[in-house]
Amino acid sequence: MQSEQKLIRSCCDGGVSFLSDIQKNLPDNQTLDNIANVFKALSDPIRVKILFALLDYEICVGGEMVNILDLPQSHVSHQLKKLRKYGIVDFEKDKKMSFYYIKDNYIKELLKMLLHEKGKGDEVK
User: Fold this and answer.
1) What is the helix (H) or strand (E) element at residue 107, kind and residue range?
2) Maximum Cα–Cα distance across the chain
3) Cα dihedral across residues 69, 65, 83, 74: positive or negative
4) Where are the beta strands (DSSP E) in 40-107?
5) CATH code assigned at 29
6) Mean pLDDT lowest among 58-62, 70-74, 90-94
7) How far is CA 81 from CA 21, 27, 56, 77, in A?
8) 7: confidence class by pLDDT, cuts 50, 70, 90
9) How far apart are CA 83 and CA 51, in angstroms?
């Protein structure tokens, strides 16, 4: 994906510096932490696979998610715990089962965009 916007050059060494403008436009630390957490969540292929599985479904851990990932339940639970820690997924209890889902649509849109940019766009609804 190439940016169509022409970038502005900023340099304090003999060029024109836009340092104050750049600093003004930076997100606050809490926002930066929230964004970094999304990328931390996406830094593990198993967690990314979990998120793709959750794009259109609420999935229970015990059977479905374990079967989808072909991993032990303890490993799946550990990865889901990390995704919850980063604020990406949540779950609802229904009797004895926990059904996980992606909390925010922007995560779904980000995943779809990433898949599309990597040449697999036809597979995404």
Assistant:
1) helix 105-115
2) 68
3) negative
4) 59-60, 89-94, 97-102
5) 1.10.10.10
6) 58-62
7) 39, 27, 20, 6
8) confident
9) 9
**Which residues is 99 bridged to in the sheet?**
60, 92
Give CA–CA dist 102/49, Å, rounded: 12
Which two tokens mark 17?
């510096």
Domain limits for position 118: 25-123
Type of residue numbered 2: Q
User: Stretch 56-74: mean pLDDT, rounded?
Assistant: 92
The pTM of the full predicted model, rounded to 2 decimals, is: 0.79
Q: How far apart are CA 22 and CA 15, in angstroms?
A: 15
* Number of structural domains found in the chain: 1
For residue 11, the one-letter residue type is C
Identify the residue whose tokens are 């779904």: 108
Identify the band that residue 17 occupies on the pLDDT scale cut at 50, 70 and 90: confident
